[in-house]
Amino acid sequence: MLAESVDVVIGVDTHRDAHALAVVEARTGAVLAQFAVSADRRGYRQALAQADELGHARRAWALEGSGSYGAGLRRALLARGERVIEIDRPERKGQRSAAKSDALDAVRAARTALARQRLARPRADGRREALRVLMVARSSAVKTRTNAVRQIKALVVSAPDDLRERLRELRGLALVRRCASLRPGSCAEPAQAATMAALRALARRALAALAETREHERALLAHVRALAPELLAEQGVGPITASQLIISWSHPGRLHGEAAFARLAAAAPIPASSGQVIRHRLDRGGDRQLNRALHTIVLVRRQRDGATKRYIERRMTEGKTAREAVRCLKRYLARHLFRLLEATAVAA
């Protein structure tokens, strides 16, 4: 337990402009001090100075939102060699009578850390953080390209006849490139000229987003090769799925075991037996992006890997549905990939 190794826990409720802090005695849970600091370097120095004034050398910091509003404070504390614990923000859905204030949330964060048997270290920065921000940018570029292509197709359907006949047989990238080369100034008819101008603008937006996506994917591949090259040797694992696996896993020791990783990935079996039927259902919680990465790997293996095909066929002959067989595979993948990351991945 945390109370056996520290004298006080400093709980922090993080926000964009200011952080609320509460110093809680580890042995009794009593609140010794409460204060607030600004969410900038000056505020971080103030928080450390006030913690030093209390005179407790054995201390830990329990941060809510250590990956968002608390990221700056987390980096400042780790740079000073402080012990930092990541705390999830409390769920208040359906708790209308629960008290809520920044000061109370800071106290709650400290007492939550004291009550836990397993403590989570904050996610790693470095290459892991580089992967995260690149994945955010790539996702935005993919959505931009998808929306632009969808709008191009919709405009082609209602375009003037001669323009529609030139474009209706084209598909995918060929359609986008043809639209990007249109010259609206050569058309005297206003509606057709406007349609050509709109198609050209959308096509150039789609091509720019495609180029951006490929640039991000090259950067992702370089980081994955530096952090966990063994992942890329796995059947069905590419730069995108490997990046998501590393982002969710973060660093060695963050998760206490493969069961915790499977639970995070929503791949842990949930008993759903009733009467004479004994079965498990899929988990709809957890990290949905990590679950999506596992699902993508399974889909690729179902198409290309003979052992995976035979496994699914065998489980279906035993009475399981295809969905249940896929769940079993995702649970196996979570176990295998977690062990691979723990054994071979380089610290970020």
Describe this structure in words.
This protein has 348 residues and is an alpha/beta fold. The chain has 3 domains: 2-115, Ribonuclease H-like superfamily/Ribonuclease H (Nucleotidyltransferase, domain 5); 127-227; 230-344, no CATH class. The protein contains 13 helices and 7 strands. Strand 2 (18-25) and strand 3 form a beta hairpin.
Topology of helices and strands:
Elements: E1 8-13, E2 18-25, E3 31-38, H1 41-53, E4 59-64, H2 71-79, E5 84-87, H3 102-115, H4 127-157, H5 161-167, H6 172-180, H7 190-227, H8 229-232, H9 239-249, H10 258-264, E6 270-271, E7 280-281, H11 288-304, H12 306-317, H13 322-344
Parallel strand pairs: 1-4, 4-5
Antiparallel strand pairs: 1-2, 2-3, 6-7
Helix pairs in contact: 1-2, 4-7, 4-9, 6-7, 7-9, 9-11, 10-13, 11-12, 11-13, 12-13
What's the alpha carbon Rg, rounded to whole Å?
A: 26 Å
Q: Helical percent range?
A: 55-70%
The total of helices stands at: 13
Strand order of the largest sheet: 3-2-1-4-5
Give the N-terminus to C-terminus distance in angstroms.
Answer: 28 Å
Q: The biggest beta sheet, please?
A: 5 strands, mixed
- How many separate domains? 3
Low-confidence stretches: none
How much is the average pLDDT? 90
Please provide the ordered H/E string of secondary-structure elements. Answer: EEEHEHEHHHHHHHHEEHHH
Structural class, judged by helices and strands?
Answer: alpha/beta
Shape, principal axes of CA atoms: globular
Beta-strand content:
5-15%
Number of strands: 7
